[in-house]
Automatic annotation (TrEMBL):
Family: Belongs to the hyi family.
Pfam families: AP_endonuc_2 (PF01261)
InterPro entries (alphabetical): HyI-like (IPR026040), Sugar_Epim/Isomerase (IPR050417), Xyl_isomerase-like_sf (IPR036237), Xyl_isomerase-like_TIM-brl (IPR013022)
Span of domain Xylose isomerase-like TIM barrel: 21-249
Protein name: TIM barrel protein
Amino acid sequence: MPRFAANLTMLFTELPMLERFAAAADAGFTGAEILFPYDIAARDLSRAAISAGLQMVLINTPPPNWAGGPRGFAALPGGEDRFRHDFERALRFAEALRARHIHVMAGAAEGPQAEATFIANLAWAAERAPQASLTIEPINRTDMPGYFLADYDLALRVIEAVGAPGLGLQFDAYHAQMITGDVLATWARVADRVRHVQIAGCPGRHEPEAGQIDYPAFFARLDRDGYGGWVSAEYTPRRQTEAGLGWLPRRQHP
Ligand SMILES: O=C(O)[C@@H](O)C(=O)CO
Ligand SMILES: [Mg+2]
C-alpha cells in the first residue's frame, strides 16, 4: 500500500493552515502538501510539519494571480523573467520546508511557441536546481480552461526534450480520468516517468471512493508496479474532512 499525504490546501480547511498538520497526522497521514504556501512564513509551516511528524511532499510554483489569473508562467512566451523570479521563490520555500517536489505550473497558453517556452524554462530550472525534484502535471481543461498542459503525450514529449534527471511527471488520477477516460491505461503508458501521484473521486473531485475510478485496483496497481512515491489526497471533502476518511487504509494509523 502506498504512503499517503494530505493536500492541506483542500483537506482540513475547517482549521487554520498551521493546525491542519496535526489534524492530518492524527487522521493517519504521514505526509503533507500545500499548493501555494506563500502567504505564510516558511519557518512556521516547517515547524508545524515537524511537530506533527509529517514529511512535506510538494509545493507548487507561485502563480501570478491565484485569485482568478492564469495558473503559472512556465509556458508563457515572454514570461521568462517572471518565471525565473517565481521559481527562485518556490525553491527557497521548498528548501525551507524540505519539500520533496516542486510542481512547475505551465499556465494558460497554446501552440508550438508555448511548448518551446515550457521546455526552455524547465531546462533552466533543472539546471538552476539540479538537486530538486521538479514535476509537471496534466490538468483537465474543464476544471482549468486554457491550461497548457492537458495532455499526457505532450507531458512525455516535454520531459524527454528537457532530458533532466530531476524532471518527472505528476500523475493526478482525477485529471487522468477526466482527460483520457481510462486512468489505469494512462498509468500503464506513463508510469515509468511518474514521481508523484494525487487522487480524488471522479466525477466531482470529492473523496476517492465511489465513481469512475476503482481506487483499490489503482492502489494495487501502484504496488504491483513498485511505485515508491507518495499518494496525495487532493479533493474537496463532501462534508467534514474527518467524516470522509473511510477510504484511508488503516495501515496508516500507528
Ligand atoms: O490538480 C490540481 O489542480 C493541482 O495539483 C494543482 O497543482 C493545481 O493548482
Ligand atoms: Mg493535482
